[in-house]
Amino acid sequence: MCGIAGLIYYNSALYDSLGSTLLSLIQPLETRGPDSCGVALYSGQVTAAQIKLLLHGNSPTPWPQVQQWLEQQLAAMNSPVNCQPIPEGLRLVVDLANGNFDPVQCKQALHNQFPMLHVVGMGQAMEIYKETGAIELLNRKYGLNHFSGTHGIGHTRMATESVVDTHHSHPFTSSYDLALVHNGQVSNYYKLRFQLERMGAVFETQNDSEAIAHYIHYQLLQGKSLEAGLYQLLDDIDGTYTFLVATRDKVALVRDKFAAKPAVVYETEDMVAIASEYRALLNLPNFDSNATIREPSAGEINIWTVLPTVKETAGRTLVNR
Prior knowledge:
CATH topology of the largest domain: Glutamine Phosphoribosylpyrophosphate, subunit 1, domain 1
Radius of gyration: 19 Å
Strand content: 25-35%
CATH superfamily of the largest domain: Aminohydrolase, N-terminal nucleophile (Ntn) domain
Largest sheet: 7 strands, antiparallel
CATH class of the largest domain: Alpha Beta
Oligomer: single chain
Shape: globular
CATH architecture of the largest domain: 4-Layer Sandwich
Helix content: 10-25%
Number of domains: 2
Order of helices and strands: EHEEHEEHEEHEEEHHHEEEEHEEE
Distance between the termini: 24 Å
């Protein structure tokens, strides 16, 4: 039993409250899983010629040496980097304009040089922050109350199938700007993992939720739309699940064919909020009891497009099975 939450803003006047409001949605759900928590937050804080990487180390890490090594490696690729220390990690902004930066090669070289490190997230919009323990600790550690952005997803975990540490916490990512949070179990996990690894997926944990992220990435690599990939997922992934997947410009909510795991959606002209329980939505600033509030059906897929500069075209795609 875990708790998931998501938030999408269509009104730019609300952007500055993204971090604080998403955390307020997750906090009441800690009773569903107090082991660990995490968020994936999206913003336009870098240019089209830059990419963000967030590194985390679970054990004592020589961060000055890590930073020096990264700066030397990226200078050799003619890709200037700005390294910002964060608690137990580094936040990097890499300039891609004139360089030959290869993120896969860099990630592998980093792992070989510093095996205790993990690349928690990579992309132009996405930043992922995780912590064992309570939401309040996550907030104090990274100052997420002040994060400004367009959308985000979050999770609070009760571990049932893998260890309790920051690395096994949600959200999981499998490619640029793609993040996933999941409540439930994947019953055909080992078969699915074997198939995905044969197709080139590299797993970093034993958490069954990571397989969903890799599956979605594989579907996108085949040229499928997010909607088509999720539609196929309902046939290929067995188990009980409700999950949120976020990309740079979309957020999707998926419930399994049995609706075994809860979800509630709150929609107004300015925003969409999703949570495992209704009580979490009551923490929204200016909660409107006249908003559209509903429980998605079994096998239902909702996809919201995040287009903050073209509000009139933003909205929801609904798929029922």
